[in-house]
Amino acid sequence: MEKHWFLLCNEKISGPHSAEEIEEQAKRTEGNLQIWGRGANEWYSLTAWRTNLAKFHEVQKKSESDHPTWRLRIEGRESTPMTYSEMLKKLRTMTDFSAVDVLMEGFSTWRELYAIQKLADDLGITRRSHPRVPIMGTFQGEFGTRTLHARIISISEGGLGITEAPGVQIGDQIRGSITSPNLFMAINCTCEVTFVGQDGYAGLKFTTIPMDAKSSIIAYVNKFVAAS
């Protein structure tokens, strides 16, 4: 049983769990459960997670097909259809995936590479030097004359994944503050937007952050790395 999933229950995060373990936990738990998988752009309710689990199995099936059912969009330029193995070969020549979107036959919208769990795993992204892990919190910031009040769903030593972030664009410089019950301190930092999705998701990298704050994030991230 492969363990891909993290569970949020009563403000406590556990995992990684297999799909079977999530279902068993759901039977034993009253109240609201939230589930996150590596690369996901959102914490899912149990119902939404089951739907996305079916999509994950569809990705698995199409990755084993020899038909050209995948397309890449790199910095806005779209590729012709290719097989999964051809796509992997292309992506393995790259080191920066922040401007890469992926479209699979049967999906209606482009998705960032990190949101396709199998692809991220096959590229070894989950084992990179700055692994992303789930977190609950808020990010409030200013960029230009605008303000941002976003929800944090993932964090790494190098940056944040946020949602409910309308109006941000790649390259925006944001001065803001991170607040999370999972960290022992509020963190003031500056960030650069490196990815913007169509669903309100944005990826940010830290440009300045205090060393004690960075140590707090590393300690939190290491709990998940050790569990994985």
**SSE succession:** EEHEHEEHEEHEEEEEEH
Q: Any idea of the CATH class of the largest domain?
A: Mainly Beta
CATH architecture classification name of the largest domain: Beta Barrel
* Largest sheet properties: 6 strands, antiparallel, barrel
- The helix count comes to 5
Overall mean pLDDT: 82
What's the overall geometry? globular
Relative helix content: 25-40%
Instruction: Write down the domain tally.
Output: 3
Q: What do we call the CATH homologous superfamily of the largest domain?
A: predicted glycosyltransferase like domains
Q: What percent strand?
A: 35-45%
Structural class: alpha+beta
| Span between termini | 13 Å
Main attributes of the structure:
single chain, 228 residues, alpha+beta, Thrombin, subunit H, 3 domains, 6-stranded antiparallel β-barrel, 4-stranded antiparallel sheet, 13 strands, 26% helix, globular
Detailed description of the structure:
- This protein folds into 3 domains: 3-62; 65-127; 133-227, Thrombin, subunit H (Beta Barrel), CATH 2.40.10.
- The model has no long low-confidence stretch (mean pLDDT 82).
- The longest helix is centred in the N-terminal third of the chain and has 18 residues, at 46-63.
- Strand 4 (70-74) and strand 5 form a beta hairpin.
- Strands 8-9-10-13-12-11 form a 6-stranded antiparallel barrel. Strands 5-4-6-7 form a 4-stranded antiparallel sheet, with no helix packed on it.
- The chain has helices at residues 19-28, 46-63, 84-91, 117-123, 211-227, and strands at 3-9, 12-18, 34-37, 70-74, 77-78, 100-104, 111-112, 133-143, 146-155, 159-163, 173-179, 187-196, 202-208.
- The chain has 228 residues and is an alpha+beta fold.
